[in-house]
Design a protein that fits this description.
Blueprint: E1 6-13, H1 20-37, E2 46-54, E3 60-63, E4 66-69, E5 71-72, E6 80-83, H2 91-99, H3 102-113, E7 117-121, H4 124-130, E8 138-139, H5 146-152, E9 157-158, E10 164-167, E11 170-173, H6 178-191, H7 193-202, H8 218-222, H9 227-237, H10 246-252, H11 257-267, H12 272-290, H13 295-301, H14 307-318, H15 322-328
Parallel strand pairs: 1-2, 1-6, 2-5, 6-7, 7-11, 8-9
Antiparallel strand pairs: 3-4, 10-11
Helix pairs in contact: 1-6, 1-7, 6-7, 9-12, 12-14
Amino acid sequence: MKNPPRTIHVGVLAYPGCLRSSAVVPLDVLRIANALTGYRPAAQRIRFECRWLGARGEPALAVDGLVFPLAPLEGAKIDALIVPAVAHDAPHELSQVLDGLAPEQAAIAAYAAGGGLLVSSCSSTGLVARTGLLDGRRATTSWWLSSWFRHKFPDVLLDADALVVQDGALVSSGGFGSTLDLALWLVGHFGGEELRQLTARILVMDAHRASQAPYVSDAIAAQGAHPTIERARRWLNARLDRPWTMAELAAHCALSQRTLLRRFQEALGVSPVQYAQQLRVERAKALLETTGLSLEEITVRCGYEDAATFSKVFKRWAALTPREYRQRFALVR
């Protein structure tokens, strides 16, 4: 009689406000791994058995039209628990969603007390951090939430550049796209590197990427935990192609010019003018990567009349390494 494949039981915590794709994509990746493991020697075969779990005793949960059949998380015999990302549009909205997830926080803490592998995705690292499990531990989250996360959870050792971070039984992933990297990590953790690499090839993914740094927009990341900066950013983004004054920006933010300068220095370590320069550089980067516009046309769209002057500004900011960017914008301690 042939030996059956080793079974790995994976639970996905479905909850109100979870990102639907983040709760579904890992299961699809693990299903592909199941198909591929059939080509391996019998002794190396594994099988992932996945199901959605709930923390509120409900038999099913509807999230924006998608219905998840649920089994209770309490008492579930699983090898790993995936916590999908939290759907949100802005950091302050994320905080509000987390406020309503007390049952999930309690269930996560109870599960972790049993020593099982706990895997968070993107913004759900904030949900895990709410339990205190990540205090003094390494973790990652979506790069654009890095400032908000450090403000809310100063005791967590955040590595916002990393795609996947493991600290003991706690595993976390970066931005939304890294949900795939996280699922591949699970494949490798339980099935070995060869199976992970093969699954990545089937998914047409780069199995070797390990950092979010190439995707970071520091001007966006900087605003997450600062309402004044967010308000200023929205106003400035609408005026990047034309002149503005400090008096106009201060009036929009309902602050005096002196207070506005102080808020920027306290939050970011730069002036509003320097911050606007960074926003313009970010716009120039996007236009260079996605359009066929000339340097002169990009210069005009970024609010400069002289291409040579803007080139100097662009090179000054673009020459910084990702870490130097975040140090300049007070994003690392």
